[in-house]
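Suppose you are handed a protein chain with no further information: no name, no annotation, nothing but its sequence. What can you learn? This example shows the usual starting point.
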Amino acid sequence: MDGNLIRKTVLEVVNEMEGKGPGYFQQGLILRESADKLNINGNGELERVLLTYWHDLFRNGYLAWGYNLANPDPPFVHITEQGRLILSNLSRDPSNPEGYLVYLANNAELNPIAKSYLEEALLTFNQSCFKAAAVMIGAAAESMILELRDTVVSRMKQLNKRIPTQFNDWRIKTVSDQIEKELNAIKRTMPHSLKERYESIWSAFFTIIRMTRNEAGHPTSVNPVTFELVHSNLLIFPELAKLITNMKQWIENKYE
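A reasonable first move is to predict its three-dimensional structure. Written in structure tokens, the prediction is:
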């Protein structure tokens, strides 16, 4: 059984049962409901896997023991502030890799390199390895930027336009700045909705992801990358990926 399905199911049950009050929001009841939904009752091996994912929610800081001062110990549990953050949009939150990847696939096309880095970013994020996740997200975004660069260059060659040397620079910022320069020169010909999204997303979203990646790779403090920062980067990545997908499609078919 896919571990992402188990994790998703447990989170959904947590989200559902918290509203029923402390009488229901207890370890045994949550686990039994999760096992029922997964249809794994009596399968000792899968029940132990369920327990592993359950304890991961405490290790990740999404759940903590106790409900209130009258019930401060197990089996009572409560959702932490960090837990509420991931549950607020569970269907496509990075803490739910299955839902996140489905949402992304429905809105953008990832090349195999970008997808492999993103999948590792989700894995490391859910292991609370935030520095590693920041680097992986940055690499996934960089792969998509380079793919867009290749699309722009290919189209410029078809149109017999001069190819700026900056497109071959080893620095991703130089490449992305040159892409932006080329796109700014033709953005007036873009469809209105694409132009609006380009102006609001392109520079801001990639800059945030790139700077976080650089901070993780060249740290200036002991703990430079937080859960909140990496979580936000993963949430904005699909919008950046969707924009790049749409830009590629437009450049290949409409740009002259």
